[in-house]
Amino acid sequence: MNVLYLMSEWPLPATAGARVHDKLMLRCLTTQYSADVVYWDLRPGPEHVDRARSVNILPFHQMNRGERALSLGRLVLTKTPYPTAQFLSEAARARLTRIVAETKPDVVVLSCVELGVTLPLLRKLTHAKLVVDVHDLQAERYRSILHTLPRSDVLGRLKHLLAMRSCAIIEHDLYRNADLAWVLKDEDAHELRSYASVPKVDVVPNVVDPDAVPASLAFDGRASEGSPTSVYLGNYSGAPNEQCALRLLELFRQAKIQETGLHLKLLGIHPTAAMKRQASTMNNVTILGEVERLADHLRPVDAIFVAPLVSGGGVKRKVIEGMMHGCPMLTTPIGAEGLELTTGEHAIVTGADEMEAPLLRLVASRSERVRLARAGYEHVAQRFGYQRLVKSVAASFDGLSN
Question: Which of 51, 126, 282, 344 has its CA 20 to 30 Å from the CA of residue 10?
Fold first, then answer.
């Protein structure tokens, strides 16, 4: 089977979950199939791209991916992150036309909804099956954020309501030209079927990055160097991760938490001004930003991963990564979505405002941390290993051909 994979930008930060998903999808497609790759950037090629049959680059400026207020002929009252077909330049259209003619794909996979800009043209150019790897449903993501905003925040609620509605319109129109959409969990598949016209929806989940986790973990050895720490990981340019970080900062202001000497590390790209402002007055918090190696900070057993998420979509890669590094996990029902976790067995799942007491218990009891860390690691390794991605993609392609 010949696969043409259209990707988004590179390089991919190790702390950006969607981009890690793209990296693993690239590995899967280039090792399991005869794959050609197109990506939108002028920088050096990504990992695993040397396994592709051919690599083609379309520069960013040819796509004009800036935010637009007019989409697919409908007036949208708020800016959205989605570009539209009318903004694909003639140069990019001609280049993509040549690539499709040369590669003769059986299947074309788009790495994200933003590349839906190419779907109308691809439908005209090829009889190949067209697949969109959706990641999170943006309309649902805005809906979840909307529910967390106080009623007094009238402008914020209006902004997210309009964004939710406009994204639903755009997603519906984009999927008219697709044969298949991939989502991260069953709930998203059901939601997408309810408002979009895509003929088929399959679940292709987030999985563990085998390059980013330790080959083996020892849960019964002596304590690692130093006291327990607490960690969180995210791309803070998104509202769910910023909200989560601000909740953590508030939690670490509590007197009982401060008395333990527990230190909080915030890892990941784009920490916000509000985060930095609050952390600047606290001596038990460090904002590290992007780090080269997650394993240096996600210490087995003695780094407690705390994720008081109250909004966001999809399956949270940060939670998978934390558990796969052997971190005891403390999160919310939102953070645990799609992971089949049993609270008290694989992780502690509780309300975002109820984190203090279980965190204090974990700090005080290393044996409890060991128990949770081991059970969480085994659960994620069994259910979300890289081979699950390979098998999910193969099953989905088989369904297309049948």
Answer: 126
